[in-house]
Amino acid sequence: MPSADPAPLLVVLDLVGIFVFAISGALVAVRKELDLFGVLVLAGATGLGGGFVRDVLIGAVPPAALADWRYLLVPAVAGVTAFFVHPTLGRWERQVNVFDAFGLALFCVVGALKASAYGLEVVPAALMGMLTGIGGGMLRDVLAGRVPVIFRGELYATPALAGAALAVGGVELGLPVVVVAPVAAAVCLVWRLLALWRGWQAPLPRGSASV
Amino acid sequence: MPSADPAPLLVVLDLVGIFVFAISGALVAVRKELDLFGVLVLAGATGLGGGFVRDVLIGAVPPAALADWRYLLVPAVAGVTAFFVHPTLGRWERQVNVFDAFGLALFCVVGALKASAYGLEVVPAALMGMLTGIGGGMLRDVLAGRVPVIFRGELYATPALAGAALAVGGVELGLPVVVVAPVAAAVCLVWRLLALWRGWQAPLPRGSASV
Amino acid sequence: MPSADPAPLLVVLDLVGIFVFAISGALVAVRKELDLFGVLVLAGATGLGGGFVRDVLIGAVPPAALADWRYLLVPAVAGVTAFFVHPTLGRWERQVNVFDAFGLALFCVVGALKASAYGLEVVPAALMGMLTGIGGGMLRDVLAGRVPVIFRGELYATPALAGAALAVGGVELGLPVVVVAPVAAAVCLVWRLLALWRGWQAPLPRGSASV
To answer: Which keywords does this Swiss-Prot/TrEMBL entry list (chains A, B, C) (predicted)?
Structure first.
């Protein structure tokens, strides 16, 4: 089993990503008029869900977040914050989306490298990286009773898959992880920010949908 | 790995809790006009789902319920019962809620102690205990196509978290489990029954929800 | 841990089953007007979801599909195919249902035997076999925002449970697996095809549903 002692910078980045994802989950809960508990659960599910699903699938249980109180405190703080100051956060939606893109870039790379460290090959590890990035949002939407927004045209998963694939592919080719990881995260981040800025959409099926 | 030989009384209580949860799942399925199979699945998911999710997260697989036929028989009996006598059960909704509170009190304490026995620290173990109590109902609601009712103001998860936290906290402080567990379960039970009786609600976000 | 070197014929059958299930998932996504990514995720979730849930519950992680690129390629091909030729596939719905019945028959038997090989007893192993057959479709429907269709009267899960129970029961009685498995799969298949042809329904609850 791989060492579980990541660099302090990585932990800080990870916690920032969880915080931003948790904010997005809490805002969905507030919009759905859920109570404080629902806000906290959606904050936690969005911030930690992707990593939990990945860890369960690759056999890394209990998930790291259950062994480190900071990973549980951060989504709780995000949930309580959103519960009380959601009108302000709502006005900052554009900025939240930008932070969310940072979270996505980080999660897809870290998730893919962790899956690779647990013995998965390149393609499944890249998929696990993508799942780390998008799984929390999917869980949030299922719990909130809506079809995941990332299935509805928003270009979100493709940058995550690209970043994850670059990260594990580069490491597989023998490139140093300190070079590969930032480049892969940057590709995901820039692609996602361009998609936000330009309104890029994922392709929709053509023709009659009444199959 | 901890011993899997709980006291007979605990097994009986556990089975009673599963039965009551399964009844609540089957009644939701009947209301949604699902077929017999849907009723059985929702009975099983509600009765066993919380424990399954906890066991998968803490690495206790296969879940204990899959190694003991009684844990599979009980939700099946509950499902078939509800399928045939649901009008009667509907009239007993108040009593079902009271039994459900017993199930919640039991599950949160047993779940928290099991997570603790698998090496989780106090806070994550308490969360796993709460998840054991509320996870089945959440799974029931997602499968039935509705937002989990426990996100909608009902005071349900907080008593579960309190009971779970008292149980693992007390054991951590060196108190004997035969004292801590009943006290923790009683706190959860009384709190939940008071919430039912007085109509206590969890707090809702203030102000415009149109963030 | 059991050997993971199944016969080539079984792998081919398995991939055919995954392909057909993935087509059904992709068609639901197209009907819901999801984008290409949503189509691919629903294809993958439907084709692989049942096996993933089974593997996580019996402790066979990472799931076999994550260690074999063919298991990831097949749902991707199915998703892309359905994305582009869905009007044609829609006209073939009857044939898709027949292939789906083959997939169900195969998955329930293979899933039950795998659970048995991981040490589960007859009843839980049969349930795991049924879950392998129906889990993908349930996950598809939850992600697509609808109550699982198999809860709504269609006779689908009962043939799967029968096939799974016959398979593990026969092996438990000492019968050779090369005899038991095809017979069990044939029972599931014929039952399911008859249900499709005759419009057999699972029983619905009687009386007022307004409990």
So the answer is: Cell membrane, Membrane, Transmembrane, Transmembrane helix
In angstroms, the separation between the Cα of residue B142 and the nearest Cα of chain A is 7
Number of Cβ within a 10 Å radius of residue A178: 8
Contact C31 A209 (CB under 8 A): yes
CB contact under 8 A, A58 and C61: yes
Residues 6+ positions from A132 with CB-CB distance below 8 Å: A50, A51, A54, A107, A108, A110, A111, A112, A114, A164
Q: Cβ–Cβ contacts within 10 Å for residue A201, how many?
A: 12
User: Between the CA of residue C57 and those of A57, A161, B71, C152, what are the distances in Å?
Assistant: 10, 27, 15, 26
pLDDT digits (tens, 9 = 90+) for A127-185: 999 999 999 999 999 999 999 999 988 889 999 999 999 999 999 999 999 999 999 99
Residue C72 and residue A127: Cβ atoms within 8 Å? yes
> Are the beta carbons of B40 and B79 closer than 8 angstroms?
yes
Position A140: which residue type? R
**How far is residue A130's CA from residue A160's CA, in Å, rounded to a whole number?**
5
Cis peptide before B8 (omega within 30 of 0): no
Determine the Cα–Cα distance for residues A125 and A115; give it in Å rounded to an integer.
5
CB contact under 8 A, C123 and B72: yes
- Sequence letter at residue C90: G
10 Å Cβ neighbour count for B95? Answer: 11
- State phi, psi for C201 to the nearest 5 degrees: -120, 150
Q: Which residue of chain A is at minimal alpha-carbon distance from B152?
A: A34
Q: Residues B46, B48, B49, B52: what is their CA dihedral angle, to the nearest 10 degrees?
A: 180
Copy the structure tokens of residue B59: 């690495």
Element at C7 (helix H, strand E): none
Domain ranges of chain B: 8-198
Residues of chain A contacting residue C142, judged by C-beta atoms under 8 Å apart: 142
Could you read off the pLDDT of C10-47 as tens digits, one per residue?
A: 788 889 889 999 999 999 999 888 999 999 999 999 99
Distance of residue C32 Cα from the nearest chain A Cα, in angstroms: 8
Q: What is the ipTM for the molecules in this complex?
A: 0.88
